[in-house]
Amino acid sequence: MPDASVLVTEHPELDTPLGHAQGAVEGYETQLSEYEDAFARSATDGQKAVCQAHIDEVRPQLEAARAHLAEIEGAN
Amino acid sequence: MAWTNSKVFATMITDLMNNTTTIDLNTDTLIEVALFDTTVTPSNTVTSANSAYAAGVWASGGVTDTGTSAPAGWPALGRPLGSVTSTFTTATYTFTAANTVSANSVTTLAATFGCLVYDHNAASPAVVDQGLCYNYFGGTQSVTLGQFTIAWNASGIFNIAA
User: Fold this and answer.
1) Across the interface, which of B69, B153, B157 has its CB nearest the CB of A23?
2) In terms of CA atoms, which chain A residue is nearest residue B123?
3) Best exposed site among A31, B83, B111, B133 by fewest CB in 10 Å?
4) H or E segment at B86?
5) pLDDT on residue B73
6) Digit-coded pLDDT (tens) for B95-129
7) Could you say which DSSP state residue B98 is in?
8) Contact B136 A3 (CB under 8 A)
9) In this predicted complex, what is the ipTM?
């Protein structure tokens, strides 16, 4: 049974309020896109229900992250 | 004991053979990768119920993004596998996927030792979120404000020799 390995790339230049806010938006956009893709590929109601639950969970988090980013960009 | 190796859950194989699970590795659309610290002592001989995410030893010790953007980079429930393949070639069955990457470039994860790969589509009346396998990272791994990538072994996330 094979072990997995880990690759890491760090971005200390993003350790700013703007960098964090952009990262939050990036993270939730990625998650939402993946859940929507999984929903589209789902063939059963059960699979769709699991995906939809996560879409409903992530969408408001993304909206909040976008609002926070807009505040920071406005302050700048 | 903590982490020392990577294993496929024996009950997952038995449940697939006996058709007592809703797992379908060829078509399930949400197979997740949840991260864990060194407080976890995994066993591949636990019951199906105790192989599941948030059950058995997997009920604690989870690692999630603790950066300011938390938990956007790596949620507690995990990151989904992409480009999954489930194939049999030259006397070996192999389950694998594209490398699994944090959802953003400012992820912070501390003291990560391994991951639980589980089927988020697995549902009642069988075991919900049943575990497929666990994979050791060879020691502690961390990232501070960056991208964390699990590079799956060339031999697959798991394989079974016929």
Assistant:
1) B69
2) A46
3) B83
4) strand B85-89
5) 95
6) 999 999 999 999 999 999 999 999 998 877 789 99
7) S
8) yes
9) 0.92
